[in-house]
Amino acid sequence: xxxSFMFERGEIMNxxxxxxxxxxxxxxxxxxxxxxxxxxxxxxDNCGVEKANSFxxxxxxxxxxxxxxxxxxxxxxxxxxxxxxxxxxxxxxSADQNIAIIKDNTLDGMSNKSIDHVSCSRMERRNWxxxxxxxxxxxxxxxxxxxxxxxxxx
Length: 154
Prior knowledge:
elongated; 5-stranded mixed β-sheet; single chain; 10 strands; alpha+beta
């Protein structure tokens, strides 16, 4: 009788052990999601800088959330050029979702050393799981409706 009680108690303990572990894993995952939501879902007026050959995830999320929630934000991308001179793209989004992109290649040794201004009215994510952007309905000094892919440049 004592052994059957111990066996039943052991069985019950094993069942609770799996439930407890499952609840613990769910709590850890939930806390991770909550922390990420509050950490990445903030849009300030300056989302930061993404330097050459890096990926500023927090800055890109900030830029997207500023666009999505009609908040004015600014984000700067610094990309290498052919001769490794930097080309800077400054993306500014106003509260009414107007997008201004300024391409500055004055520090690029092999370029025409110009500053180009592009206006866009739409911004899309390349796909739902990434923060690579395509800007649409863009105008640039006489070129209308030219999509602008930030990863490829102007």
